[in-house]
């Protein structure tokens, strides 16, 4: 494909898909679960590209996971896949490797460009939710990159909604992407979570965070990760206010 047509968000998605394709050949798929923005884009129809890739590690020692991910990132297979899109790994930093969190920060070169494109791979060793399903990434996601669809575990809609509500409520720094993602999930899966399933204080915090988020946060954190063709549908204070109101109302209903 012509790499010059790829946005930075698409370069990152290309890399994530290539990484997952090679990882599945090197690590048992039962040992990791995709979550967060990448999972929502691949399996829930999100219009937002994911800046990073987040996974839960399942019953695997950190040293073993580190070795498997390192092998994946240095493999000839990922080099060949990236080269097919005019991409290459310039370097990979490993700023955090602990018993609970393992993080890699790849930097990518793109043919015809000077600046590097950065992303992050993060595995959490905290308890993984058992509500998960094994699926292949849909063809329409991988088709623009001429890649084969990797298969992986991801969380079900109810688990994903609960995780996003917790993220909105409990992050040390509130993220506009959490509200954007919640609107998608709550509209597409309105009955996935029932009233009483989430602690009232968590819901109260999430509502407060939802209504406090300024439009500028959405512009800074989300807009550049949307397809150019749909930006006009979202990039205005009125649309943002409607998203906030919808999410706050639905969260309040879950408290009853």
H and E string: HEHEHHEEEEEHEHHHHHH
Number of domains: 2
User: What is the CATH fold-level name of the largest domain?
Assistant: Nuclear Transport Factor 2, Chain: A
Number of helices: 11
Question: In the CATH classification, which architecture of the largest domain applies?
Answer: Roll
Mean pLDDT: 95
**Ends: how far apart?**
51 Å
Oligomer: single chain
What does this structure look like?
- The protein has helices at residues 8-26, 36-43, 62-73, 76-84, 139-142, 157-170, 176-188, 200-212, 215-221, 231-234, 237-255, and strands at residues 32-35, 53-57, 87-97, 101-110, 117-118, 121-124, 132-136, 151-155.
- It is 48% helix and 18% strand.
- The mean pLDDT is 95.
- Strands 1, 2, 3, 4, 5, 6, 7 and 8 form an 8-stranded mixed beta sheet that branches.
- Helix 1 (8-26) packs antiparallel against helix 4, helix 6 packs antiparallel against helix 7 (176-188) and helix 7 packs across helix 11 (237-255).
- With 256 residues, the protein is an alpha+beta fold.
- The termini are far apart.
- It has 2 domains: 3-155, Nuclear Transport Factor 2, Chain: A; 158-255, no CATH class.
- The chain has 11 helices and 8 strands.
């Amino acid at each position: 494909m012509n790499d010059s047509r790829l946005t930075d968000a698409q370069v990152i998605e290309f890399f994530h898909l290539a990484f997952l394709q090679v990882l599945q050949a090197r690590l048992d798929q039962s040992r990791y679960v995709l979550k967060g923005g990448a999972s929502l884009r691949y399996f829930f129809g999100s219009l937002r590209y994911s800046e990073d890739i987040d996974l839960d590690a399942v019953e695997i020692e950190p040293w073993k996971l580190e070795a498997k991910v390192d092998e994946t990132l240095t493999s000839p297979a990922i080099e060949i896949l990236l080269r097919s899109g005019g991409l290459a790994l310039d370097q990979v930093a490993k700023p955090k490797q602990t018993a609970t969190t393992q993080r890699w920060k790849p930097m990518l070169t793109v043919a015809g460009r000077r600046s590097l494109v950065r992303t992050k791979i993060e595995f959490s060793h905290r308890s993984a939710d058992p509500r998960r399903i094994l699926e292949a990434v849909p063809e329409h996601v991988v088709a623009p990159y001429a890649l084969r669809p990797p298969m992986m575990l991801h969380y079900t809609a109810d688990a994903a909604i609960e995780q996003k509500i917790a993220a909105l409520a409990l992050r040390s720094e509130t993220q506009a992407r959490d509200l954007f993602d919640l609107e998608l999930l709550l509209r597409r899966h309105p009955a996935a979570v029932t009233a009483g399933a989430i602690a009232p204080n968590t819901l109260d915090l999430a509502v407060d965070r939802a209504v406090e988020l300024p439009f500028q946060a959405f512009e800074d954190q989300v807009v550049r990760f949307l397809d150019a063709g749909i930006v006009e549908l979202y990039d205005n204070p009125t649309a943002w206010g409607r998203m906030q109101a919808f999410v706050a109302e639905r969260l309040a209903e879950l408290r009853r």
